[in-house]
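quick one, 138 residues, struct below
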Amino acid sequence: MENEKDVELEKLRQVKLLKMLKKSKSFGKEALINKPIEVTDATFNVTVQSHPLVVIDCWAAWCGPCRMIAPIIEELAREYAGKVVFGKLDVDKNRAVSMHYQIVSIPTLMVFSYGKILDKITGVLPKPVLEARITRYL
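---
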C-alpha cells in the first residue's frame, strides 16, 4: 500500500515537472544533462522514452563493482552531455524495472533509444570499451 502511494506521488511530481518545463523558455531545447540522474520505477519510462540515447546504470549500494564503475559513468555523462543521458537505477529500491528487464547481475548498463532497448552490458569494463559500446548508437 505504501509503495503504491509512493509511485502515485512520483507520477504526480512528474506531471507537475512537465507543466513547469512547458512554461519555461527552454522547453523543447535539450538541456545539457552532464551527470547521471536518479531513475526510479515511477520515472523509468518517461526517462528512457524522452531522449534519443539513454544509458541506465543498474546498481546497488552494497555492490563493490558498481562503485568501481560509477566514476566512469560520471565521466562519460560529462563528456557526452547533450548527446547521451545517463541514469542510475538502484535495483534494491526499484524492483519492478529490475524484474521486467531480468537484471540478475550488477552492474548492468541498459542502452535505450526513445524507449527501445538497444544493448545490455553486464559487469565492469574499462572506460574505452564502455565508451565504444555506447557511442556506436550515436
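The first strand starts at residue 37 and ends at 39.
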